[in-house]
Design a protein that fits this description.
Elements lengths: L1 H16 L13 H108 L5 H21 L2 E3 L13 E7 L8 E7 L2 E3 L2 E4 L1 E6 L1
Parallel strand pairs: 2-6
Antiparallel strand pairs: 1-4, 3-6, 4-5
Amino acid sequence: MKKINKNRERIKKMSNDEELVFGADEEPVNNEAEESSVEDAAASDKAAAEAEEVKAEEAKAEDAEADEEDEEEAAADSSEAINELEARYMNLYAEYDNYRKRTQKEKENLYADAIATVTKEFLTVIDNLDRAAEVAKKSDEASLEKVIQGMELVDRQAKDTLAKIGVEEIPAERGTKFDPNLHDAMMHVDDEELGEQEIAMVFAKGYKYKDRVIRHAQVQVAN
């Protein structure tokens, strides 16, 4: 026991006299290995970052290429749509032009048919007028009555022809109320026998087809 206490005192005294150095006999710690590990980690992180950057650039390039392809496809679709619209427009224009020419031709044919129909109806009247004129040239006082009768016959025939094609004479006898839609006032006169705005005289008869006035009756209006 005494021997142990002496050893303890001896150790304590040694510790007071000089600082104990543990591991003095061991080899010094290698800091270069630690620095190498740090550098390797940094290099690894840098390489990883560069790899990520490369991947990002590649992804960006792929996206740009995909967008370009989409734009090209969209442009191709637009061009195709425009071509289709142009083709449809040209077809519609051609159809309309054909329709316009066809309807114009039909109108011309209808007009020509109407002229031919009316002229055909009046040919007999013209023939009778020619005959009446020849008779009048050769007539004397004794045959004058026959000439007048012939002219009246032609007049009735002409009116019948007009009625046949739907043309009516506009009423415009003396005493008829003046209508500006049917009559054309050529003169005004004071006439006690007639009322206000009544027809006094007819200078030229008027005619209408259904509700369409062909020629207004030219009249003299009283009061």
